[in-house]
Amino acid sequence: MLVLLAGIFVVHIATVIMLFVSTIANVWMVGSYDTARISRGLWLLCNSNSTCEKLTVSPDEASLKAVQAFMILSIIFSVIALVMFIVQLFTLEKGKRFYITGAIMLVCWLCILIGVSIYTARFTGSIPATTNSHHGYCFILAWICFCFSFIISILYLVLRKK
């Protein structure tokens, strides 16, 4: 049981780190323009000359603000769930379940789902004046975090402290 709890804890920490990286880094979409590489994230539009400019959001594209908000919420809920797991690990009686931690991780999972789905629907292939645009590693990390947070939340909900 101790090995299972340690494994869940390690995967949870890895999920938090990957959520931070995917939200902060600016490689959600990558494209090329002539010989320059252009990457777009949630916050900046960067080119291969290491110059970045802030993404401008018109009132019509409030969906970018929604993606930013849901990714930040997912980080917050994941960190709260990690703290709650540690608190419940030492305070719950034997045989109790980690319901609160699992519920918080399900909310984190839902925030990731909404944020990445909005980005997929609205911004896929949307780097202007580029060819060969494709998803970057941050987008892929966000989907990996989606899977991990769901698995972790289900494990928390069915896990008994023995």
TrEMBL record:
Keywords: Glycoprotein, Membrane, Transmembrane, Transmembrane helix. The keyword Ion transport does not apply. Coiled coil: none annotated. It is found in: Membrane. The chain crosses the membrane at residues 7-29, 69-91, 98-119, 139-159. Its main location: membrane. It is a multi-pass membrane protein. Pfam families: PMP22_Claudin. InterPro entries: PMP-22/EMP/MP20-like, PMP22/EMP/MP20/Claudin, PMP22_EMP_MP20. Belongs to the PMP-22/EMP/MP20 family. This is Epithelial membrane protein 1. It comes from Psophia crepitans.
